[in-house]
Amino acid sequence: MNYIIKGMPVEDLKSLVKEHDFPQYRATQIYHWMYQGLVFNSDLMNNLPKNLKSFLNEQCTIQTLELSKKIESEGTTKFLFKTQDSNYIESVSMFNDDRHTICLSSQVGCNVDCKFCATGKMGFKKNLTVGEIIDQLILIMSNIDRPIHNIVFMGMGEPFLNYDNVIKAADIMHDSDAFNFGSHRITISTAGILPKINRFIDDKIKYHLAISLNATEDKTRDKLMPINQKWPIMDLINAAKKYNKDRRDRVTFEYVLIDSINDSISDAHRLAKLLKNTHCKLNIIPFNEIESIYKRPSDKKINEFLNELHAIHKGFQILVRWSKGTDINAGCGQLAIQDN
Ligand code: SAH
Ligand code: SF4
Fold it and tell me: Dihedral through CA 76, CA 136, CA 182, CA 102, nearest 10?
């Protein structure tokens, strides 16, 4: 038998050890070794008896990912990981004003097909398991000896199309018996899978929600993100209002600024109007170049857009994400495995 214990909720781990005639408290010890000790090798779990170590060695998987490659540039590190079924995923560690943010993947590829995103161009390969999501965190922690302030699900894939595994992984990251990250430090970003946004709100999931808006008119968003034909802009704005009301937390809207597509002064006006009563945060992300028909606006145009927005916006906070690591294709939307 092969039990994948990395990512298993502690209650399931307790049942597993019990089934194999070990006392249940051993599960808590293993859980601590995996998520606080960051240990992959059961031989290092030095408070476990020999027969339990052998059981772990022979019948359980503790390590689901291997580090294949690490590239660094100006405080940003891009990691390439290999799964046991020989798929590759990327994750990023970046520092901004000494804040350490890590960007995790939720799927191998993505089938949402946003026209400006390198991951979208790969197509969909598979959903990551809970263990594979958590091992990205563990391998980054083992390689970069600095505390992590924020975890964002903005790497490869659409987290809400792998909803259960992403939430289970976030729960372990949040668990005080494991990594103990505050819930507000974990952000899940979605292209706008409306039924899952509603479920996220209804289930009162505590993590921070980000929605990739990227356009101010449905006809533009239909082209950039075909998913808009199913769940258009106003549905997302209304969901954000509901989240705000029910959860008393602000949604973050992301807006990738693309030259001559969604960066006009009229777009700035429509954006301010759309977000007026949502009490949201707005992250403007200047487009990172990938092989596509799209271009990044000039710095002049980016600044004009921002100045206009700053002059007229009401009731929401604006941040600009000048992605780092674009020279190593580690910026938002640049993650894809073909260049490795
Ligand atoms: N699938 C999720 C999370 C991963 S994408 C989502 O779409 O939200 C993370 C962010 O990168 C999204 O806000 C997306 O709009 C943005 N993005 C995608 N391609 C980009 C590019 N080429 N340049 C800048 N941002 C991009
Ligand atoms: Fe998928 Fe997000 Fe890229 Fe769209 S932007 S293709 S949802 S990873």
Answer: 10
